[in-house]
Amino acid sequence: MMSKFLIFSALFSLVFAKPTARSMKVREAIQSVPAGYVRTGAASADTELNLRIALVQNNPEGLIDALYSVSTPDSASYGEHLSKEEAENFVAPTAQSTEAVNSWLEQAGLSAATISPAGDWLSVSVPVGQANELFDADFAVYTHSETGKQAIRTMSYSIPTELEGHLDFVHPTITFPSPISLRPVVSTPSNPGRRAIEPLASCSTSGITPDCVLSLYGIPTTKATQSSNKLGVSGFEDEFANKADLATFLNEFRPDLEGETFSLQTVDDGQNPQNASEAGLEANLDIQYTVGIASGVPVTFISVGLENKDGDLMGFLDIINFLLGESNPPQVLTTSYGFDENTISFSLANNLCNAYAQLGARGTSILFASGDGGVSGGHTSSCTDFVPVFPTSCPFVTSVGATQLTSSGGETAASFSSGGFSDYFGRQSYQTSAVSSYLAFLGSTDSGLYNTSGRAFPDVSAIGVSLEIVIEGEVELVDGTSCSSPIFASNIALINDALIAAGKSPLGFLNPFLYANPGAFHDITTGDNPGCNTNGFPATTGWDPVTGLGTPNFAALKAAAGV
Ligand SMILES: *[C@@H]1O[C@H](CO)[C@@H](O)[C@H](O)[C@H]1NC(C)=O
Ligand SMILES: *[C@@H]1O[C@H](CO)[C@@H](O)[C@H](O)[C@H]1NC(C)=O
């Protein structure tokens, strides 16, 4: 096997005129094969790798400064969101960088396509043999023992020293597909299985309907009026949203919204087949609790195709570049998927986080579910340190945790609600004061298990246990922060409707506004999020890493927004 592989490489170096010897520098490396994976053999030299190359952006710090100026309520330019061109100007590579990387690829007989509107991402197809030479890499086949998932990855790769400062990083290389992504936890005993539609108690620990959500948070049923206001729902992993199920859901739970539906956009040949059996629990949940809560707001389901199937974040890159390419992207985007932060290379996570900052600076509120594994992230097995979840750990998105109803009709933290502190992103000033108070309260509890200087999450929360959804014509109860993010997003979309109707800007990147208005939330002070053989973090008065600032008080949030 090994000798055959070497011969293949040698042949390839003849075919693709080996560039003159250059000095190479390791760009990214991991020390050990990620947990759960084993190297199961060399990758065939002629297998085509579809590589994405990130070029160095010319002024990412300038972008973040601009993001804060338009998103911080007491700033003079609050609400003056950037145009598409203004945002792109910060992240476009310099002409020298584009030229240097393209001519290096051309010398190797390769031609790259530009895949982001600012020109900071290239895509190139390269056979494994040639990729190994170009990047001093060792692409091999790795198999995930539990799931059987296979991927071609390398433990390290290098770039020519003369491309330093031009070529930022390459994906997929050292970031292995995450075998787990966030999905609704459909757990017993709260999930008694599917049952026929019948009149139900609207607000009890054994079932939460849209009416219950509306009354908990004081959300009006009045229909939104602004057709330019959009709420986007990300769809991944062949999760499809079914229109007939939505119609049944509205007919049962929001008859006043009968006839409301959603529109579809597709990325990477994404689809949304309507056969009843193809309906996905996650996609139906996300659509039913946006269309059914954000009364009258135009909702778009954005279905990302097969490329994300191996969980390699390609789909996450592609959906964000797709939206950045739009002149009028949705003003709110909710995503109920995520990964353990430590399974993603820092460069990739940082680049994606920066892409969310671009969209935020343009006026989009980006919400992510915080994760369903308590302090253990997506881990089902043991963990020694708490595991943060990405993209929710990116400081430029709004992270949404989950609560559950108590028997007295109040809310307490849902024990699966992920929260904690990023190991990649530092704490931002908008949350310094809230988090410092919490850390003072926490004292030595959980000491050493989390990063005291990291970006803390979630930012907010919403109900996420025993939500009634319709799937294949029947009712099923679902749990998860996957319920909470669409609900919080719907509150923001309705406030945006009022803002736009009043001739004002939509809220855009939310966090500075949210932390400046802690009184606009129902503070959740009980419960915790166990994991990693600990009780996790306790919820308490004020912000906490289980329920954030709390659940929305719609009228107070709307008033804080000035409408
Ligand atoms: C869904 O419907 C299409 C066309 O109506 C059909 O070709 C396909 O086989 C169906 N898929 C399933 C899983 O039933
Ligand atoms: C903790 O977070 C800081 C800020 O993001 C980071 O620089 C540091 O590397 C993190 N420490 C660990 C052990 O991950």
Automatic annotation (TrEMBL):
Keyword Plastid on entry: no
GO cellular component assignments: extracellular region
Region forming the signal peptide: 1-17
Residues the record lists as binding Ca(2+): D523, I524, G542, D544
Domain Peptidase S53 span(s) in chain numbering: 207-563
Cofactor: how and how many bound: Binds 1 Ca(2+) ion per subunit.
Active site: E282, D286, S482
GO MF terms held by the record: metal ion binding; serine-type endopeptidase activity; tripeptidyl-peptidase activity
SMART domains associated with the record: Pro-kuma_activ
Transmembrane segments: none
Domain of life: Eukaryota
Entry's Gene Ontology BP terms: proteolysis
Family annotation (InterPro entries): Peptidase_S8/S53_dom (IPR000209), Peptidase_S8/S53_dom_sf (IPR036852), S53_propep (IPR015366), Sedolisin_dom (IPR030400), Tripeptidyl-peptidase_I (IPR050819)
EC number: 3.4.14.10
UniProt catalytic activity: Release of an N-terminal tripeptide from a polypeptide
CDD domains in alphabetical order: Peptidases_S53 (cd04056), Pro-peptidase_S53 (cd11377)
Gene3D superfamilies the UniProt entry points to: Peptidase S8/S53 domain
Pfam families the record matches: Peptidase_S8, Pro-kuma_activ
Subcellular location: Secreted, Extracellular space
Function: Secreted tripeptidyl-peptidase which degrades proteins at acidic pHs and is involved in virulence.
Name of the protein this chain belongs to: tripeptidyl-peptidase II
Species of the source: Phanerochaete carnosa (strain HHB-10118-sp)
